[in-house]
Specification:
By secondary structure, this protein is α+β, with helices and mostly antiparallel strands. The chain has one domain: Thiol Ester Dehydrase, Chain A (Roll). Helices cover about 25% and strands about 30% of the residues. The chain has three helices and seven strands, in the order E-E-H-E-E-E-E-E-H-H. A hairpin with a 3-residue loop joins strand 4 and strand 5. It is globular. Bound molecules: coenzyme A. The site of coenzyme A has 11 residues, from strand 3 and strand 6.
Amino acid sequence: MQDAFKTVEASQVTITELMLPSHSNFSGKIHGGYILSLMDQIAFACASKHSGFYCVTASVHKVDFLNSIDVGELVTLKASVNYVGNSSMVIGIRVESENIRDQYVKHCNSSYFTMVARDENGKSVPIPGLILDSEAKIRRFLRSIKRQEETKIRQEKFKAAKFDVNEAELQILNKYKVKIEL
Ligand SMILES: CC(C)(COP(=O)(O)OP(=O)(O)OC[C@H]1O[C@@H](n2cnc3c(N)ncnc32)[C@H](O)[C@@H]1OP(=O)(O)O)[C@@H](O)C(=O)NCCC(=O)NCCS
């Protein structure tokens, strides 16, 4: 029997990994795709711990690579549940990289993975609620709601079936490097 509500701490996950030459591109920097793969793994671990079910990645918002990562650095990923819906969770992930010799730490990336809990038949299942016991956790939860609302508005506005090119929209394109040939 699962708890109806769980703390954020109960499912927090941290992993640290040494960046090897096999993860790098020709200039000795770590491939972004490799970091994304680690992020997906930790999001899965955190979401599965909170929900008690295997989870799938539904969406990612959004990945800005703020600093490059070099071979030989220690990369640490921290994941925690920021938001829960009925079967979905937003997992906040912070990626930092540390130079072993001088201990200089760079913030490389913060991102939000939406994970959905699925049962053995592949159906979405209800998950435990979240205990919000600090202002930071309330802020993160509300920020997730806001992000979802903004995504919905953007998706509605640009739905192919509804979208009409009008004069105002064409005006916006004036300052971009495009040639309209309708
Ligand atoms: C994501 C997925 C599970 C959603 O399936 P679905 O049939 O739409 O599921 P449901 O309608 O039951 O919705 C389940 C939840 O997912 C959320 N959801 C669905 N698509 C979403 C998306 N693109 N972004 C964020 N949340 C999403 C819904 O809002 C709902 O949340 P709630 O239960 O908390 O209210 C399904 O599209 C899927 O399996 N996608 C592939 C996942 C995968 O393979 N990932 C790895 C990529 S290779």
